[in-house]
Write a structure and sequence with these properties.
The protein is an alpha/beta fold. It has one domain: Aldolase class I (TIM Barrel), CATH 3.20.20.70. The chain is built from eleven helices and twelve strands. It has a twelve-stranded mixed β-sheet with strand order 7-8-9-6-5-4-3-2-1-10-11-12, covered by helices on one side. A hairpin with a 2-residue loop joins strand 8 and strand 9. Helix 1 packs parallel to helix 2 and helix 3 runs parallel beside helix 5. The protein starts with 25 loop residues before the first strand and ends with a helix. The relative contact order is 0.15. The structure holds S-adenosylmethionine and iron/sulfur cluster. S-adenosylmethionine binds next to strand 3, strand 5 and helix 11.
Protein backbone atom coordinates (compact mmCIF):
# COMPACT_ATOMS: atom_id res chain seq x y z
CA UNK A 1 0.00 0.00 0.00
CA UNK A 2 1.29 3.46 -0.84
CA UNK A 3 1.87 5.75 2.08
CA UNK A 4 -1.45 7.43 2.93
CA UNK A 5 -1.42 11.22 2.63
CA UNK A 6 -1.60 13.16 5.93
CA UNK A 7 -5.08 14.17 6.97
CA UNK A 8 -6.45 17.53 6.05
CA UNK A 9 -8.95 19.29 8.28
CA UNK A 10 -12.41 19.59 6.70
CA UNK A 11 -15.70 20.84 8.10
CA UNK A 12 -17.79 18.62 10.41
CA UNK A 13 -20.48 16.62 8.62
CA UNK A 14 -23.57 15.26 10.46
CA UNK A 15 -23.64 11.66 11.70
CA UNK A 16 -25.49 9.12 9.51
CA UNK A 17 -28.93 8.34 10.90
CA UNK A 18 -31.71 6.00 9.85
CA UNK A 19 -35.47 6.55 9.72
CA UNK A 20 -35.84 5.19 13.27
CA UNK A 21 -33.45 7.79 14.71
CA UNK A 22 -30.56 5.35 15.20
CA UNK A 23 -27.19 7.11 14.78
CA UNK A 24 -24.44 5.08 13.15
CA UNK A 25 -21.24 4.83 15.17
CA UNK A 26 -19.76 1.46 14.20
CA UNK A 27 -18.41 0.24 10.90
CA UNK A 28 -17.47 -3.34 10.06
CA UNK A 29 -15.09 -3.85 7.20
CA UNK A 30 -14.80 -7.32 5.73
CA UNK A 31 -11.37 -7.42 4.11
CA UNK A 32 -11.79 -10.83 2.47
CA UNK A 33 -14.44 -13.51 2.04
CA UNK A 34 -11.77 -16.23 2.08
CA UNK A 35 -11.30 -18.43 5.07
CA UNK A 36 -9.20 -21.42 6.09
CA UNK A 37 -12.12 -22.76 8.19
CA UNK A 38 -15.36 -24.24 7.00
CA UNK A 39 -17.71 -23.60 9.88
CA UNK A 40 -20.98 -25.44 9.32
CA UNK A 41 -23.02 -22.39 10.38
CA UNK A 42 -21.22 -20.03 7.99
CA UNK A 43 -19.34 -21.35 4.96
CA UNK A 44 -21.11 -23.03 2.04
CA UNK A 45 -19.93 -26.47 0.92
CA UNK A 46 -18.69 -24.98 -2.38
CA UNK A 47 -17.74 -21.34 -1.83
CA UNK A 48 -17.32 -19.09 -4.87
CA UNK A 49 -14.60 -16.72 -3.74
CA UNK A 50 -14.61 -13.10 -4.76
CA UNK A 51 -12.02 -12.43 -7.46
CA UNK A 52 -8.88 -10.78 -6.09
CA UNK A 53 -9.05 -8.00 -8.70
CA UNK A 54 -12.60 -7.14 -7.56
CA UNK A 55 -11.49 -6.37 -4.02
CA UNK A 56 -10.99 -2.82 -2.82
CA UNK A 57 -7.33 -2.11 -2.08
CA UNK A 58 -6.32 -1.21 1.46
CA UNK A 59 -5.65 2.33 0.27
CA UNK A 60 -9.23 2.58 -1.01
CA UNK A 61 -10.56 1.08 2.20
CA UNK A 62 -8.56 3.61 4.17
CA UNK A 63 -10.09 6.54 2.26
CA UNK A 64 -13.55 5.10 2.86
CA UNK A 65 -12.83 4.71 6.60
CA UNK A 66 -11.60 8.29 6.77
CA UNK A 67 -14.78 9.46 5.00
CA UNK A 68 -16.91 7.53 7.50
CA UNK A 69 -15.00 8.67 10.60
CA UNK A 70 -15.58 12.27 9.49
CA UNK A 71 -19.27 11.35 9.59
CA UNK A 72 -19.33 10.05 13.14
CA UNK A 73 -17.99 6.49 12.98
CA UNK A 74 -16.16 5.85 16.26
CA UNK A 75 -15.38 2.15 16.05
CA UNK A 76 -14.09 0.07 13.16
CA UNK A 77 -14.05 -3.71 13.29
CA UNK A 78 -11.96 -5.66 10.77
CA UNK A 79 -13.56 -8.95 9.88
CA UNK A 80 -14.04 -11.42 7.02
CA UNK A 81 -13.92 -14.33 5.99
CA UNK A 82 -10.76 -14.67 7.98
CA UNK A 83 -9.16 -11.21 8.12
CA UNK A 84 -5.69 -12.57 8.91
CA UNK A 85 -5.71 -14.33 5.52
CA UNK A 86 -5.46 -11.04 3.64
CA UNK A 87 -1.89 -9.92 3.22
CA UNK A 88 -1.31 -6.37 4.39
CA UNK A 89 -4.03 -6.31 7.03
CA UNK A 90 -1.62 -5.51 9.88
CA UNK A 91 -0.22 -2.53 7.97
CA UNK A 92 -3.79 -1.39 7.24
CA UNK A 93 -4.53 -1.40 10.98
CA UNK A 94 -1.39 0.63 11.63
CA UNK A 95 -2.49 3.19 9.00
CA UNK A 96 -5.98 3.41 10.53
CA UNK A 97 -4.41 4.76 13.75
CA UNK A 98 -4.20 8.16 12.02
CA UNK A 99 -8.00 8.33 12.13
CA UNK A 100 -7.89 8.45 15.93
CA UNK A 101 -6.93 12.13 15.52
CA UNK A 102 -10.31 12.85 13.93
CA UNK A 103 -12.66 10.87 16.15
CA UNK A 104 -12.02 7.15 15.73
CA UNK A 105 -11.93 5.58 19.20
CA UNK A 106 -11.38 1.85 18.67
CA UNK A 107 -10.06 -0.53 16.05
CA UNK A 108 -11.04 -4.16 16.64
CA UNK A 109 -10.83 -7.47 14.84
CA UNK A 110 -12.90 -10.65 14.75
CA UNK A 111 -10.84 -13.73 13.92
CA UNK A 112 -11.00 -17.49 14.09
CA UNK A 113 -7.68 -17.33 15.98
CA UNK A 114 -5.83 -19.87 13.84
CA UNK A 115 -3.06 -17.44 12.79
CA UNK A 116 -2.94 -15.44 15.99
CA UNK A 117 0.13 -17.12 17.38
CA UNK A 118 1.95 -15.73 14.36
CA UNK A 119 0.31 -12.27 14.32
CA UNK A 120 -0.66 -11.34 17.91
CA UNK A 121 2.50 -9.30 18.65
CA UNK A 122 2.39 -7.48 15.27
CA UNK A 123 -1.29 -6.65 15.73
CA UNK A 124 -0.59 -5.23 19.18
CA UNK A 125 2.25 -3.16 17.80
CA UNK A 126 0.01 -1.91 14.98
CA UNK A 127 -2.33 -0.52 17.66
CA UNK A 128 -5.27 -2.92 17.41
CA UNK A 129 -7.39 -2.24 20.48
CA UNK A 130 -9.20 -5.54 20.99
CA UNK A 131 -9.92 -8.94 19.55
CA UNK A 132 -12.97 -11.18 19.34
CA UNK A 133 -11.96 -14.78 18.81
CA UNK A 134 -14.36 -17.52 17.77
CA UNK A 135 -14.29 -20.75 19.78
CA UNK A 136 -17.35 -23.00 19.57
CA UNK A 137 -16.07 -26.10 21.33
CA UNK A 138 -13.31 -27.30 23.63
CA UNK A 139 -13.70 -30.87 22.43
CA UNK A 140 -11.08 -31.54 19.76
CA UNK A 141 -13.26 -33.85 17.65
CA UNK A 142 -16.33 -31.67 17.87
CA UNK A 143 -14.26 -28.60 17.00
CA UNK A 144 -13.02 -30.34 13.84
CA UNK A 145 -16.55 -31.37 12.89
CA UNK A 146 -17.72 -27.79 13.27
CA UNK A 147 -14.84 -25.98 11.56
CA UNK A 148 -12.84 -28.57 9.57
CA UNK A 149 -9.71 -27.34 11.37
CA UNK A 150 -7.75 -28.21 14.49
CA UNK A 151 -8.50 -26.75 17.92
CA UNK A 152 -4.91 -26.54 19.21
CA UNK A 153 -3.69 -23.61 17.04
CA UNK A 154 -6.73 -21.60 18.15
CA UNK A 155 -6.00 -22.24 21.84
CA UNK A 156 -2.39 -21.25 21.21
CA UNK A 157 -3.57 -18.15 19.36
CA UNK A 158 -5.75 -17.14 22.31
CA UNK A 159 -2.79 -17.61 24.64
CA UNK A 160 -0.53 -15.53 22.39
CA UNK A 161 -3.11 -12.73 22.30
CA UNK A 162 -3.36 -12.74 26.09
CA UNK A 163 0.41 -12.75 26.47
CA UNK A 164 0.82 -9.57 24.42
CA UNK A 165 -1.88 -7.91 26.51
CA UNK A 166 -4.97 -7.94 24.28
CA UNK A 167 -8.44 -7.48 25.70
CA UNK A 168 -10.24 -10.47 24.21
CA UNK A 169 -13.77 -11.74 23.95
CA UNK A 170 -14.61 -15.29 22.94
CA UNK A 171 -17.55 -15.83 20.57
CA UNK A 172 -19.31 -19.21 20.61
CA UNK A 173 -22.11 -19.96 18.16
CA UNK A 174 -24.36 -22.72 19.51
CA UNK A 175 -26.25 -25.25 17.41
CA UNK A 176 -28.85 -27.48 19.01
CA UNK A 177 -27.84 -31.13 19.10
CA UNK A 178 -24.31 -30.25 17.98
CA UNK A 179 -22.29 -28.18 20.46
CA UNK A 180 -24.89 -27.15 23.04
CA UNK A 181 -23.15 -29.59 25.39
CA UNK A 182 -20.29 -27.03 25.49
CA UNK A 183 -22.13 -24.28 27.35
CA UNK A 184 -20.89 -25.24 30.81
CA UNK A 185 -17.41 -26.31 29.63
CA UNK A 186 -16.89 -22.99 27.88
CA UNK A 187 -18.18 -21.03 30.88
CA UNK A 188 -15.81 -22.80 33.31
CA UNK A 189 -12.92 -22.43 30.85
CA UNK A 190 -13.61 -18.70 30.40
CA UNK A 191 -13.63 -18.24 34.17
CA UNK A 192 -10.29 -20.03 34.50
CA UNK A 193 -8.75 -18.12 31.59
CA UNK A 194 -10.26 -14.83 32.72
CA UNK A 195 -11.74 -13.99 29.31
CA UNK A 196 -15.17 -12.61 28.51
CA UNK A 197 -17.41 -15.18 26.83
CA UNK A 198 -20.30 -14.45 24.51
CA UNK A 199 -22.73 -17.06 23.28
CA UNK A 200 -24.33 -16.34 19.91
CA UNK A 201 -27.68 -17.69 18.77
CA UNK A 202 -27.35 -19.40 15.38
CA UNK A 203 -28.68 -16.97 12.74
CA UNK A 204 -29.99 -17.76 9.23
CA UNK A 205 -26.71 -16.66 7.62
CA UNK A 206 -25.16 -20.03 6.80
CA UNK A 207 -23.90 -20.30 3.23
CA UNK A 208 -26.03 -23.29 2.24
CA UNK A 209 -29.18 -22.01 3.95
CA UNK A 210 -29.77 -25.06 6.07
CA UNK A 211 -30.73 -22.94 9.08
CA UNK A 212 -33.94 -23.76 10.85
CA UNK A 213 -35.33 -22.40 14.11
CA UNK A 214 -35.07 -25.96 15.48
CA UNK A 215 -31.27 -25.55 15.44
CA UNK A 216 -31.30 -22.44 17.60
CA UNK A 217 -30.17 -22.67 21.21
CA UNK A 218 -32.08 -19.76 22.69
CA UNK A 219 -30.89 -17.28 25.29
CA UNK A 220 -33.27 -18.92 27.77
CA UNK A 221 -31.86 -22.41 27.01
CA UNK A 222 -28.36 -21.05 27.64
CA UNK A 223 -29.34 -19.38 30.92
CA UNK A 224 -31.13 -22.54 32.08
CA UNK A 225 -27.99 -24.60 31.54
CA UNK A 226 -25.73 -22.03 33.19
CA UNK A 227 -28.06 -21.85 36.20
CA UNK A 228 -27.35 -25.50 37.00
CA UNK A 229 -23.77 -24.61 38.02
CA UNK A 230 -23.51 -20.83 38.35
CA UNK A 231 -25.25 -18.04 40.18
CA UNK A 232 -26.59 -15.71 37.46
CA UNK A 233 -27.21 -11.99 37.83
CA UNK A 234 -28.40 -9.55 35.18
CA UNK A 235 -25.49 -7.38 33.97
CA UNK A 236 -25.26 -3.80 32.78
CA UNK A 237 -27.92 -2.41 30.47
CA UNK A 238 -27.42 -3.30 26.82
CA UNK A 239 -27.36 0.10 25.03
CA UNK A 240 -26.09 -0.40 21.48
CA UNK A 241 -24.20 -3.53 22.52
CA UNK A 242 -25.56 -6.59 20.64
CA UNK A 243 -25.01 -8.85 23.64
CA UNK A 244 -27.31 -9.00 26.66
CA UNK A 245 -24.98 -9.11 29.60
CA UNK A 246 -25.05 -11.26 32.72
CA UNK A 247 -22.71 -12.07 35.58
CA UNK A 248 -22.11 -15.72 36.33
CA UNK A 249 -20.31 -16.12 39.68
CA UNK A 250 -19.33 -12.45 39.20
CA UNK A 251 -17.80 -13.07 35.77
CA UNK A 252 -19.33 -11.09 32.87
CA UNK A 253 -20.82 -13.09 30.00
CA UNK A 254 -22.88 -11.96 27.02
CA UNK A 255 -25.58 -13.59 24.92
CA UNK A 256 -26.23 -12.31 21.41
CA UNK A 257 -29.81 -13.43 20.97
CA UNK A 258 -30.75 -12.00 17.59
CA UNK A 259 -33.43 -14.64 17.10
CA UNK A 260 -35.18 -14.60 20.47
CA UNK A 261 -34.35 -11.09 21.78
CA UNK A 262 -33.00 -9.04 18.90
CA UNK A 263 -30.95 -5.93 19.72
CA UNK A 264 -31.99 -4.22 16.47
CA UNK A 265 -33.83 -1.39 18.27
CA UNK A 266 -30.56 0.33 19.10
CA UNK A 267 -28.40 -0.88 16.21
CA UNK A 268 -25.60 1.57 15.39
CA UNK A 269 -23.75 -0.62 12.85
CA UNK A 270 -22.92 -0.40 9.17
CA UNK A 271 -21.01 -2.86 7.02
CA UNK A 272 -18.80 -2.88 3.93
CA UNK A 273 -17.72 -6.09 2.25
CA UNK A 274 -14.39 -6.72 0.54
CA UNK A 275 -15.59 -5.77 -2.94
CA UNK A 276 -17.20 -2.52 -1.84
CA UNK A 277 -20.79 -3.56 -1.31
CA UNK A 278 -22.31 -1.72 1.60
CA UNK A 279 -25.03 -3.09 3.90
CA UNK A 280 -27.17 -1.11 6.32
CA UNK A 281 -28.04 -4.35 8.18
CA UNK A 282 -26.61 -7.86 8.51
CA UNK A 283 -29.89 -9.16 7.11
CA UNK A 284 -30.37 -6.59 4.32
CA UNK A 285 -31.71 -8.18 1.20
CA UNK A 286 -30.13 -5.45 -0.91
CA UNK A 287 -26.67 -3.98 -0.62
CA UNK A 288 -25.36 -0.78 -2.17
CA UNK A 289 -22.52 -1.19 -4.68
CA UNK A 290 -20.03 1.52 -3.77
CA UNK A 291 -16.80 0.32 -5.33
CA UNK A 292 -16.70 3.00 -8.05
CA UNK A 293 -17.66 5.80 -5.70
CA UNK A 294 -15.07 4.68 -3.15
CA UNK A 295 -12.38 4.55 -5.83
CA UNK A 296 -13.25 8.12 -6.80
CA UNK A 297 -12.48 9.25 -3.23
CA UNK A 298 -8.77 8.89 -3.95
CA UNK A 299 -8.98 12.01 -6.09
CA UNK A 300 -9.97 13.95 -2.97
CA UNK A 301 -12.51 15.96 -4.97
CA UNK A 302 -15.52 17.53 -3.35
CA UNK A 303 -17.87 16.05 -5.96
CA UNK A 304 -16.68 12.48 -5.24
CA UNK A 305 -17.46 13.03 -1.55
CA UNK A 306 -20.83 14.57 -2.34
CA UNK A 307 -21.87 11.64 -4.55
CA UNK A 308 -20.91 9.08 -1.92
CA UNK A 309 -22.57 11.12 0.81
CA UNK A 310 -25.83 11.24 -1.14
CA UNK A 311 -25.79 7.49 -1.92
CA UNK A 312 -25.09 6.55 1.68
CA UNK A 313 -27.49 8.99 3.28
CA UNK A 314 -30.49 7.65 1.35
CA UNK A 315 -29.57 3.99 1.77
CA UNK A 316 -28.79 4.29 5.49
CA UNK A 317 -31.97 6.30 6.10
CA UNK A 318 -34.00 3.42 4.66
CA UNK A 319 -32.53 0.81 7.00
CA UNK A 320 -35.28 -1.59 8.09
CA UNK A 321 -36.41 -1.78 11.71
CA UNK A 322 -34.48 -5.01 12.15
CA UNK A 323 -34.21 -8.77 11.76
CA UNK A 324 -37.83 -9.56 12.61
CA UNK A 325 -39.20 -6.79 10.35
CA UNK A 326 -37.14 -8.12 7.41
CA UNK A 327 -38.30 -11.68 8.05
CA UNK A 328 -41.94 -10.58 8.20
CA UNK A 329 -41.57 -8.68 4.93
CA UNK A 330 -40.04 -11.71 3.22
CA UNK A 331 -42.94 -13.87 4.33
CA UNK A 332 -45.52 -11.29 3.24
CA UNK A 333 -44.09 -11.06 -0.28
CA UNK A 334 -43.18 -14.71 -0.47
CA UNK A 335 -39.50 -13.81 -0.66
CA UNK A 336 -38.24 -16.82 1.22
CA UNK A 337 -34.56 -17.17 0.25
CA UNK A 338 -34.79 -20.76 -0.96
CA UNK A 339 -37.90 -20.29 -3.11
CA UNK A 340 -36.75 -17.13 -4.86
CA UNK A 341 -33.92 -17.40 -7.43
CA UNK A 342 -33.35 -13.63 -7.38
CA UNK A 343 -32.87 -13.53 -3.68
CA UNK A 344 -29.46 -12.43 -2.48
CA UNK A 345 -27.81 -15.27 -0.62
CA UNK A 346 -26.76 -13.78 2.67
CA UNK A 347 -23.80 -15.67 3.98
CA UNK A 348 -21.83 -14.57 6.98
CA UNK A 349 -18.43 -15.26 5.37
CA UNK A 350 -19.17 -12.69 2.63
CA UNK A 351 -20.53 -9.87 4.75
CA UNK A 352 -18.53 -10.32 7.97
CA UNK A 353 -20.09 -10.93 11.37
N1 LIG B 1 -13.50 -15.64 10.53
C1 LIG B 1 -13.66 -14.80 11.67
C2 LIG B 1 -14.29 -15.55 12.82
O1 LIG B 1 -14.82 -16.64 12.61
O2 LIG B 1 -14.26 -15.03 13.93
C3 LIG B 1 -14.44 -13.54 11.37
C4 LIG B 1 -15.63 -13.65 10.47
S1 LIG B 1 -16.99 -14.58 11.13
C5 LIG B 1 -18.13 -14.46 9.81
C6 LIG B 1 -17.59 -13.46 12.37
C7 LIG B 1 -18.47 -14.06 13.44
O3 LIG B 1 -19.68 -14.47 12.86
C8 LIG B 1 -17.88 -15.26 14.15
O4 LIG B 1 -17.88 -15.04 15.55
C9 LIG B 1 -18.81 -16.37 13.78
O5 LIG B 1 -18.90 -17.31 14.80
C10 LIG B 1 -20.10 -15.64 13.55
N2 LIG B 1 -21.05 -16.36 12.69
C11 LIG B 1 -20.83 -16.88 11.47
N3 LIG B 1 -21.94 -17.45 10.98
C12 LIG B 1 -22.91 -17.28 11.91
C13 LIG B 1 -24.29 -17.65 11.98
N4 LIG B 1 -24.89 -18.29 10.99
N5 LIG B 1 -24.97 -17.30 13.09
C14 LIG B 1 -24.36 -16.64 14.10
N6 LIG B 1 -23.07 -16.25 14.09
C15 LIG B 1 -22.34 -16.58 13.01
FE1 LIG C 1 -14.45 -18.76 8.49
FE2 LIG C 1 -15.28 -17.24 10.49
FE3 LIG C 1 -17.03 -18.26 8.74
FE4 LIG C 1 -15.84 -19.90 10.43
S1 LIG C 1 -17.22 -18.21 10.97
S2 LIG C 1 -16.06 -20.23 8.21
S3 LIG C 1 -13.87 -18.97 10.65
S4 LIG C 1 -15.48 -16.77 8.30
Amino acid sequence: MNRIQPLQQTELVPVFQDQFGRNKRKLRISVTDRCNFKCVYCMPEHPEWMKKHDLLSFEELYHFCEFMVRRGIEQIRITGGEPLMRQGVVHFIAELQQLKKIGLKRISMTTNGHYLKQYAAELKQAGLDDLNISLDSLDTEQFEQLTAKKLQPVLEGIQAAQQVGFLIKINAVLIKGSNDNQILHLAHWAKRENVELRFIEFMPLDGDQNWSSDHVVSEQDILDQLATEFEIKIGQSQGANPARTYQIDNMPIGIISTITNSFCGSCDRLRLNAQGEFFNCLFSTQGLKLKDSIQQLRQQSLSAEQILQQQLQTYIWNKAAGFHAIQAQQKQFNLEPKSNPNFRKISMHMIGG
